[in-house]
Structures are given as structure tokens and as C-alpha cells.
Design a protein that fits this description.
The protein is built from 5 helices and 6 strands. By secondary structure, it is an alpha+beta fold. The strands form 2 sheets. Strands 1-2-3 form a 3-stranded antiparallel β-sheet, with no helix packed on it. A 3-stranded mixed β-sheet has the order 5-4-6. The longest helix has 17 residues.
Length: 151
């Protein structure tokens, strides 16, 4: 850490304590060159997650957008808001646990389908029909057949 008084890059930590409910760490440092003390703060860097859409455009990840899609799929189903939040939390956990900061919308959809399938088959089929852009009844029947064969 560079000393604000003399510019020396060597210092030692004299005291360290958490602040802001553990969100930051306050450190008192002492410069090896001029022996003056100064304070620094350490925080976790939050790099935004970017979604790469099918047309190759990019946009920041938006939890509301994903939640709205899942809510539509779960409409009039015996699924609580807590269960929907749990699905979104699981998807986000997978998204943020990776090293990549750019994730394709296809991957987001695949994760969502995986968790919806476990939760409710009707909601899963509804989500898949919109996500995979079913154009006719045959596409719909193919997905239902796959679902039935898995059982």
C-alpha cells in the first residue's frame, strides 16, 4: 500500500478490524520509510455479471427479469413465492460461483430449467416452451415425450 505522505510502497499493518457489519475491513498502517500512520479500507470487489444474449449483445444480469419469467411459468400452480425465490437463488449461486463474468443467456435458461424441472413439471414445460420458442404442437409434444420417458 502506497504511503499518502511520502509515496513509499512498504508499510505494515498495525491494527485491523471489521466495519460496516463485516462488509469492510479497516486497517491502520505504518510506513516503513517515514513512520507515519494512515488508514486503509479493504472491501470485496463486486464485478457485475454480464449476460450475453443470443444476438451477441450484452446486458447486466437482472434478477427481476429472471424472476418475472419464472413467475409466468409458475402462474396458477401450487408454488409459493419462497419456492420461486429458492429457484432463483440456486440459479444465481451457479452463475456467481463460476470464474466467468460473462455468461450466455442460454446457460441461464438451462440452469433455470434444471431447477424448475425438480420443482414442478408443468411450470418447467411452460418455461421451456417460451425459452426454446416452440413454434408448433410437435415441439411441445417432443418435450412432453422426453419428460415422460425420464420417468
Amino acid at each position: 500500500m502506497k504511503c499518502p505522505y511520502c509515496g513509499c510502497e512498504d508499510s505494515k499493518v498495525v491494527d485491523s478490524r471489521p466495519t460496516d457489519e463485516g462488509e469492510r475491513i479497516r486497517r491502520r498502517r505504518e510506513c516503513f520509510n517515514c513512520a507515519k500512520r494512515f488508514t486503509t479500507y479493504e472491501i470485496v470487489e463486486n464485478t457485475p455479471l454480464m449476460i450475453v444474449k443470443r444476438d451477441k449483445s450484452r446486458e447486466p444480469y437482472n434478477r427481476e427479469k429472471l424472476t418475472n419469467g419464472v413467475l409466468r411459468a409458475c402462474e396458477k400452480r401450487p408454488i409459493s413465492v419462497d419456492q420461486i425465490d429458492e429457484v432463483i437463488d440456486k440459479v444465481e449461486s451457479k452463475l456467481y460461483s463460476g470464474v466467468e463474468r460473462e455468461i450466455s443467456s442460454v446457460q441461464v435458461g438451462e440452469y433455470t430449467m434444471e431447477y424448475l424441472k425438480e420443482l414442478d413439471e408443468v411450470a418447467y414445460v411452460r418455461f421451456v416452451s417460451v425459452y426454446r420458442q416452440f413454434q408448433d404442437i410437435h415441439s411441445f409434444m417432443n418435450e412432453l415425450t422426453k419428460l415422460l420417458n425420464e420417468k
